[in-house]
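INTERNAL AUDIT FORM
Audit reference: QA-55
Scope: verify that the stored structure record matches its stored sequence.
Auditor: D.O.
Record contents follow.
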Amino acid sequence: MSVPVLLAVLCGAFLHAGWNAFIKAGQDKALDTALVHSLGFFVAIPLLLVAGLPEPAAWPYMAASLTIHLGYYIALAGAYKYGDLGLTYPLMRGSAPLLVALGSLAFIGEALSSRAWIGVAVLCVGVVTLGLSHSAMHVEGDAHRGKALGFALANAAIIAIYTVIDGIGVRLSGNATAYVAGLFLFDGIPFLLLVLWRRPGRRLAALAYMKGRWPVALMGTVASLGSYGIALWAMTRAPVAVVAALRETSVLFAALIGTLFLRESFGWQRAAGTLVILAGVMALRLG
């Protein structure tokens, strides 16, 4: 992986942590998640007008990814409802890279070097170390902790599945911008409709909430699209598994955001996890 691609992926990781922190800081996790991604419709249209449509060969992969993303948003909102950003975010993101590496080997035929495999494994250990730190386990009650962990781990599997699918799809699309814009055109609409459908009698209140939140949510939309767009572009220039693993350095930014703005503590175990993640990044770069 070249240095420019590496730096781009790290920039995308920061953007990813930013929009996740916006959702965690809100009062209604499901509505904020739906709002951020449904606004992608309005951001995607001008991008498609400029970039054009992706190649037809990529459309089945886009359709599969859109379907799987619905489960991702449901699990994401559930994880943030019951757990801290510092617990759920690292577990969701940190458990996925090894699954992505196995999936890319099986379905794309990308074999990583031994050093890259070590880098992926070390980075995953660092991410999970951050997530399982004592300070990140501040969840009210065992029932809530169990639900938070369940949603987070389920989402890790979902993340791995759609990452491999999109890694194939973007390479067939002919244009990473067109592919990500096509995804975001319809990505959030089904989840928004689902959230509103599950709130009979409270839909007017939901619309009022979104009316007050949309200006800030739009920044989250741009960050989300930019983050995933960078990752997909990088997957056309580097192995999918390596990009997916490096993208999870976003947990470092999430830990800092959680500490500085969401009043989550930063203990020695998070510091140790940070050092392990940095070691994993170096191994991936050298691998």
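Auditor finding: record pair retrieved intact. Confidence is low (pLDDT under 50) at residues 134-140.
Action required: none
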